[in-house]
Amino acid sequence: MTFGKYALIFAPVAIVLTMPGSAQSGSSKMDQVVAHMKAVGTMSSSFTQTDRRGGTLSGKLLLKRPGHVRFEYQKDVPLLIVGDGKALTVVDYEVRQVQRWPIRNSPLAALLDPGQDLRRFGKLVETSTDDVTSVEVRDPKRPEFGVITMIFVRRPGAPGGLTLNGWVALDSKNNRTTVRLTDVKYNINIASSAFTWKDPRPVRRKS
User: Fold this and answer.
1) Is 122 exposed, middle or buried (0-12, 13-18, 19+ CB in 10 A)?
2) Which residue has the higher pLDDT, 114 or 51?
3) Which of the residue ranges 16-20, 83-87, 94-98 has the most confident prediction, judged by mean pLDDT?
4) For residues 63 and 42, is the Cβ–Cβ distance under 8 A?
5) What pTM did the predictor assign?
6) What does the alpha-carbon distance between residue 131 and residue 155 come to, in Å, rounded to a whole number?
7) Phi first, then psi: what are they for 104, rounded to 5°?
8) d(CA 127, CA 139)
9) Which end of the chain has fewer CB atoms at under 10 Å, N or C?
10) Cα–Cα distances in Å, from 1 out to 4, 61, 77, 176?
């Protein structure tokens, strides 16, 4: 097993969002998304990840802003993805591989940084109902980085009146990965120790 196919949604991408849409309700919808983002300090949920072939994986998600996230996959998938505030680390315990890149170069930067003001950069995607708000993230100058679309659903009592339902990632080869969140809880106590990881790589002894 290699972590590439499981980590598609976390592949590096520059966070340069397209200009806001011109729909009449666009401004108020984007304001609501921004209010939600600023009101969320922590989040926990279950997630289901589906690839373009219909294969699914599940796991648990923890988020603590700014910059901390943990994707822990189901027991038979020896993969862990952790953001420690500075970098995203993908750990494959089966093959003892570790890959890291700056959070700012990840699509998750838009979720992990509450200072990201989507009113300046975001593009609203038209939806079939006012209860759903979708925000598209792409770099038009770097199409090889693909596209990620965050999906929010109206939920009274949730921060900003919205809950994050998940996101859809499309890479440059049109491979689609969908992540859906369930049992989402906001602003609960999450210890910083939840964002540590055990390095599986063999220790090199000094001669």
Assistant:
1) buried
2) 51
3) 94-98
4) yes
5) 0.81
6) 8
7) -65, -20
8) 22
9) C
10) 9, 22, 9, 20
Residue-wise pLDDT tens digits, 50-88: 988 899 999 999 999 988 999 999 999 999 999 998 888
Residue the block writes with tokens 């790589």: 201
How would DSSP label each residue in the chain?
--TTTTSGGGS-----PPPPP--TTHHHHHHHHHHHHHH-SEEEEEEEEE-TTS-EEEEEEEEETTTEEEEEE-TTS-EEEEEESSEEEEEETTTTEEEEEEGGGSTTHHHH-TT--HHHH-EEEP-SSTTEEEEEEE-TT-GGG-EEEEEEEE-TTSGGGEEEEEEEEE-TT--EEEEEEEEEEES----GGGG-----SPPPPP-
Angle at 142 between CA 139 and CA 143, to 5 degrees: 85
Token reading at 158: 């949730």
The half-sphere exposure of 203 on its side-chain side, counting CA atoms within 13 A, is 3
- The pair of three-digit structure tokens given for residue 155, joined into one six-digit string: 């939920």
With beta carbons less than 8 A apart as the criterion, state whether 164 and 171 touch. Answer: no
> Residue range 1-17: average pLDDT?
42
Residues in the chain: 207
